[in-house]
Specification:
It is a single chain. This protein has 415 residues and is α/β, with parallel strands linked by helices. It has one domain (24-215, 270-377): Rossmann fold, CATH 3.40.50.1820. The protein is 39% helix and 13% strand. The chain has helices at 2-16, 57-60, 64-71, 98-101, 120-135, 150-171, 198-202, 214-218, 222-225, 230-238, 250-266, 272-291, 294-297, 317-327, 353-360, 362-365, 375-378, and strands spanning 23-24, 38-40, 52-55, 80-84, 106-112, 143-148, 182-188, 243-244, 268-269, 304-309, 333-338, 387-388. The two termini are 32 Å apart.
C-alpha cells in the first residue's frame, strides 16, 4: 500500500499542483487497440520535425466500459470529442474527467512529443486531417473540440478553419456531406491571453539561463501553477475521506490507480530548447495570430463553453473568459468559473466537465445525464469542494491488485 500511496500522490500532485506545462508523456498504458496511437507527420514541404499522436486514453488504459464499446463497434456512433492539450503536449491534466466524458463521447486526445517543432499552423492542419479521417465513415458524425491553455488557441484556429472549409464547400456546390459537423467547442483557461500574462513575463528568461541552472530556475514558476487546495484534496483521497465526484465507482478508481502506476516510467522533462520553442512559436505567436482574427471570431457559429480557474495565476483567465464571451456574442456562450482552482487544476477534481458540456450543448447532445456537478460536491467548501464521500463507504482505498482484476481492467488486445 505504501507504493500505491506514493505513486498516487505523485500522479495527482502533478495534476493538481505542479506546472503541467513542463512535463510530457505522462501516461500511456500497454492495452493497445489495433491502431491506438495514430502518428501524424506533415506532407512534404511542411515541417519535417513534426511528431504528433492521437490517442484513445480510456482504451489505452483498459477502462472496461470503453473497451466494451470498442469491441461492440459502437464507439463510432457517439459524437467525437477531441482534446487538445496545453503546451505540455500530454493528456494528463484532464485524465480524471475522461471516464465521465466517455458516457457521452468517443474521447480522443492529441499528444505532442518533446522533440516536435510544429508551428501552430502545422498543428492546425494535422488536427483537421485527423478529424477528416475520423469522420470519413460518417460525415454527419458530430464533432466537439476541447482545448486547454495553448489548446484553446489551437481549438479556435481549428474552429475557424472548419467554418471556412465548410463555407467553401457550399460555394463550390460540393456534396454537403463532406463538411465537418462541428457542434461545439470548449475552452479551458485558453491561452489567448498569454501575451498579457505573468507566464509571458517570467517564462522566457528561463530559456536564456545556463543549462545547469535551468531545472532549479524552473521551480520558481511553481507559484504560477498551484492553488490552495490541490495538495489538501490529495490528502483527502489518501486518507479515504473522499474522492473527486467524477471518480464514483470501483472501475474509475482502478483507472485512477493504474494511471498512478504508469506515470513514473512515462514522464519526460521538458528540455530548455522545447520550452523556448513552445513559448515563442506556440504561445506568443499563436496568441497574437488568433487575436488578429477577432473579426472572424465574431462570426463563429458554434456554441462555446469557456471554463476558467478562479485562482489561475498563469494566465488572466477570469478576465479572458469575460472578454471572449463578449467577443463571441453572436453564438451561444456559457462561462463557468471553477472555484478555487489554479491553472493546473482547473480540469481536475473541482469540476464536472461532462455536466457543463451537457448544459452548454443540451440542444445538440439531448442527454439525460446530469447538467450540474453533484449537489454533495457543490455544497462542500474549501478542499472538500468537488469531492464526495467514497462510493463504497470504505475506510481504505482500493487495493492495487484490484486495479487489474477482470472487473476493472480489459485489454483490447483480447478483442
Amino acid at each position: 500500500m505504501k507504493i500505491e500511496l506514493v505513486l498516487i500522490v505523485f500522479t495527482l500532485a502533478i495534476t493538481t499542483s505542479y506546472p503541467k506545462s513542463f512535463i510530457c508523456n505522462a501516461f500511456s498504458l500497454t492495452s493497445s487497440v489495433a491502431n491506438p496511437k495514430q502518428d501524424y507527420t506533415l506532407s512534404s514541404g511542411a515541417n519535417p520535425k513534426s511528431s504528433v499522436r492521437f490517442e484513445s486514453p480510456l482504451l489505452d488504459a483498459g477502462y472496461p466500459p470503453a473497451v466494451t464499446e470498442y469491441r461492440a463497434k459502437t464507439l463510432g456512433k457517439k459524437p467525437l470529442l477531441l482534446y487538445l492539450p496545453g503546451f505540455d503536449g500530454t493528456l494528463l491534466a484532464p485524465f480524471l474527467q475522461f471516464p465521465e466524458l466517455s458516457t457521452e463521447f468517443d474521447v480522443k486526445g492529441m499528444t505532442v512529443d518533446m522533440s516536435d517543432r510544429s508551428s501552430v499552423e502545422d498543428l492546425k492542419e494535422i488536427v483537421l486531417d485527423f478529424i477528416e479521417k475520423e469522420t470519413k465513415p460518417d460525415m454527419d458524425r458530430p464533432v466537439y473540440i476541447m482545448g486547454e491553455s495553448f489548446g484553446g488557441i489551437l481549438t479556435l484556429e481549428v474552429a475557424l478553419a472548419i467554418r471556412e472549409r465548410n463555407a467553401s464547400i457550399g460555394k463550390e456546390c460540393i456534396d454537403a456531406k463532406t463538411a465537418i459537423n462541428l457542434q461545439g467547442i470548449s475552452l479551458i483557461n485558453p491561452a489567448t491571453s498569454y501575451n498579457d500574462s505573468d507566464l509571458a513575463k517570467d517564462g522566457p528568461p528561463l530559456t536564456r539561463v545556463s543549462p545547469m541552472l535551468y531545472p532549479f530556475e524552473l521551480m520558481k514558476l511553481l507559484p504560477l501553477f498551484t492553488d490552495d487546495y490541490g495538495f489538501s484534496q490529495l490528502l483527502l483521497i489518501l486518507q479515504s475521506k473522499g474522492l473527486p465526484s467524477v471518480i464514483d465507482n470501483e472501475q474509475r478508481e482502478a483507472y485512477m490507480g493504474r494511471t498512478a502506476f504508469s506515470l513514473p516510467t512515462k514522464m519526460k522533462f521538458m528540455p530548455q530548447e522545447t520550452l523556448k520553442w513552445r513559448l515563442e512559436e506556440w504561445l506568443a505567436k499563436g496568441c497574437a495570430a488568433i487575436n488578429n482574427k477577432e473579426q472572424f471570431l465574431l462570426d463563429l457559429d458554434v456554441p462555446v463553453l469557456i471554463v476558467a480557474g478562479e485562482m489561475d495565476n498563469t494566465l488572466p483567465s477570469l478576465e479572458e473568459a469575460k472578454r471572449l464571451s463578449t467577443l463571441l456574442k453572436n453564438t451561444q456562450t456559457n462561462v463557468h468559473i471553477v472555484k478555487g482552482a489554479g491553472h493546473a487544476h482547473t480540469a481536475g477534481s473541482r469540476v464536472d466537465l461532462t455536466a457543463l458540456m451537457r448544459m452548454t450543448f443540451r440542444d445538440k447532445l439531448r442527454s439525460n445525464g446530469r447538467t450540474e456537478m453533484k449537489p454533495s460536491a457543490t455544497q462542500a467548501s474549501r478542499e472538500f469542494y468537488g469531492m464526495e464521500e467514497r462510493y463504497d463507504k470504505a475506510n481504505i482505498g482500493l487495493i492495487p491488485t484490484k486495479y487489474w482484476c477482470r472487473e476493472n481492467f480489459l485489454s483490447v488486445r483480447e478483442a
